[in-house]
């Protein structure tokens, strides 16, 4: 590798948000073997996906290894770019899928590890459960983030290139002898940031837009609330402790006086 390729862009951090999750259906279901293998009651897909309006993942993600429960033959499944980075299977039980993400070679970054616990049964409020049963579809997703700290120059170049948004473009207005135009289509503008708000359909239980700044803010507010509740509890415990100490001293004094 030429020296310049491994040089790092100092003081720079580039983040990428993405989704790890699974969908699950009671069998029989479209896309899964019918009849299902003996004893298999669920069909599921575990995946690593970009945000709906985010930059192309394959700029940084080159390979994903999903390690399934040892009851599966060929438990280790490797998906190379361009993906889709997903594995579909049938089975009877939930387990933690070990996921290893391999980065673009020019990044010089080591693979990272994540785990996704498969969710096969309906969850949430009674209403949410009823909806999942009715649609025969369970979705369990979470937002993940990778941060590239002082990326190499080559990696920085691809992480900042406009080409990353090409996959969101559709061909339009193809004039005779002219190159086709590519335009963005859809409700949300392409961005590497979390959208301010996301539509209610996105994400598992995240009605109201799971992958959005709004959701991030709500989560932060909740955490702050928990933090101050904890502070209050600590204060109260301190007061109780002082109280106990005083009572002990009183008892001690009374005993010594005897
Ligand atoms: C459970 N701890 O008992 C879990 C184990 C096993 C998952 C889940 C079948 C694989 C196969 C399968 O679903 N394994 O027969 O190919 O709930």
Describe this structure in a few short sentences.
The chain has 258 residues and is an alpha+beta fold.
Structure characterization notes:
It is a single chain. With 258 residues, the protein is of the alpha+beta class. The chain folds into two domains: 143 residues, YEATS domain (Immunoglobulin-like), CATH 2.60.40.1970; 42 residues. It is built from four helices and ten strands. The strands form three sheets. The chain has a four-stranded antiparallel sheet. The longest helix is centred in the C-terminal third of the chain and has 45 residues.
Number of contiguous helices: 4
Which structural category fits the helices and strands? alpha+beta
Average per-residue pLDDT, rounded, comes to 87
What molecules are bound to this protein?
A: ligand SLL
Can you tell me the CATH superfamily of the largest domain? YEATS domain
CATH class of the largest domain: Mainly Beta
Name of the CATH architecture of the largest domain? Sandwich
**Largest sheet strand order:** 5-2-1-8
Q: Sketch the major β-sheet.
A: 4 strands, antiparallel
Overall number of structural domains: 2
Write the SSE topology.
Blueprint: H1 3-6, E1 13-26, E2 42-50, E3 61-67, E4 76-80, E5 85-91, E6 96-103, E7 112-117, H2 126-135, E8 138-149, H3 153-159, E9 169-172, E10 181-184, H4 213-257
Antiparallel strand pairs: 1-2, 1-8, 2-5, 3-4, 3-6, 6-7, 9-10
Bound molecules: ligand SLL.
